[in-house]
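Chain A, query sequence.
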Amino acid sequence: MMPMLTRDEVHVRLQEIFPDGAPNRAYLTRMLAASTVFVALYIDATEGSGTMLGPKHVYRMTDEQAALVDDASRTAYATGVLRTGSQTEGRRWYQDNTREPIRDETLREGLVAIGAVIERTDLPTTSSKPRYALKASFAALFDPALTGEALQARIAAWQAEALNKGALARLAIVRQGAGVSADQVLVTFPNGETRRMKPGPSSEITKAVVEVFAPAFLTAPAVVFLSESGNKVVARDDALARSIGLAIQADKNLPDTILVDLGPVHPLLVFVEVVATDGPISQRRKEALEELVAEAGFPAEHVAFVTAYLDRSAGPFKKTVDSLAWGSYAWFAAEPERLMVFSEARESLRGRP
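Chain A, predicted structure.
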């Protein structure tokens, strides 16, 4: 059997294998996932071994049993825990009611869905027999001898083979946006002009808003206002603002970015708040911006509110999602073709896909 990492070491390695941007990352990197992968390795439930993993193997594991890493102890646990009335020395990691989260979230929606675990298809759905095993290429990532650059190279090779193009693209975007460059961030406006911003995640998201979001969701986009942290104005086009009937005054309520779509008969004004840590368009923020628009004489029905994030699986979105205003949108640089709508209207789900 393969030498063992500890459960905590497996947990750390899962964070590297599934970084921010990975689909269903929460299911793939929490301690329950680490426990599942650890136990699969412990009993050698890997592709081609003939041994399969069931949820019972995971929730019956104890610290005392996990410390017994000789082949005989590991083999005995793999078969013994499945016997009715069997007992394992020590306090169990989980109770029996953890069966469903292990099976449905960690395995089926997490590791199986992403291609890290295989599942037997010849068993009835009601069968209690073990049916899961780590794919050999995934199990190899937990070799204790694999460290440093060799580990990173093996992880990158596995990601390139196992993840689909969309998932790989999302990982690349998140890595780029989360990195802090030593150079300034160059933002190219729809009209071809460029501006430089201080390096950092907020500037990377702002760059994506202007260069990716605007042309994707607006017919004829233009930048009216652009700022960065510290309320420093990077760009401000008063002439454009006046041409559409908007009088912009220096105001603490101004968002990070103001876009305008010049395509419709009546231009659409888009307020965008960039969130790298906090500060979304909340209900209070939305009302303040609506008041600002009303004072400027711009029709409220031609205004949209967007909060821009790097990725929906990361902390900033999870931290602020419950404060996002109804009637606003959320956009993620890692999934640029999608737009999340927080609708104020009561709509029927009938007939929707």
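The mean pLDDT is 86. The radius of gyration is 26 Å.
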